[in-house]
Design brief:
The protein is mostly helical. Helices cover 62% and strands 5% of the residues. A hairpin with a 5-residue loop joins strand 2 and strand 3.
């Protein structure tokens, strides 16, 4: 490790806030590399890499539980990439499902908007009436 960093400096380098690091610690994703006698946490280069890993994985939609599994796979020596690939495929499948759901929502909203006669009074608004209906 080239340099030990306080939590504030580590947070700035990783472009997160201090509360994020505390949260990652509570979730078991991150541990300070050492502590001063005063109790201050110290982090190093590996911690910064791990924080960036977590943030990048979150940016791809991985949950913290999934990230914990990825991190555990990362530390296994002699392992294969298949487990990581399976998790990435599962995340992709989930994203595709969400996209299909969003497309259906967009289509439904477009239909609702087309039914709106903007010059009518609010008490006869087609959009509001539709929202009151029983779901199909």
């Amino acid at each position: 490790m080239s340099e030990t960093l306080t939590i504030g400096r580590a947070a700035r380098l990783a472009k997160v806030n201090i509360q994020t690091l505390h949260y990652y610690e509570r979730r078991g994703l991150l541990r300070p590399e050492s502590r001063l006698e005063s109790g201050y946490r110290l982090y190093g280069d590996e911690s910064i890499k791990k924080i960036r890993f977590i943030k990048n994985a979150q940016g791809l939609g991985f949950t913290l539980n999934e990230i914990a599994r990825l991190l555990s796979l990362q530390t296994r020596h002699g392992g294969q990439c298949a487990g990581v690939r399976r998790q990435a495929q599962a995340r992709l499948d989930s994203v595709k499902e969400k996209m299909a759901s969003l497309r259906a929502m967009e289509k439904a909203l477009r239909r609702l908007i087309r039914t709106c006669a903007t010059k009518t009074m609010i008490d006869t608004c087609q959009i509001l009436e539709c929202l009151e209906e029983q779901p199909r």
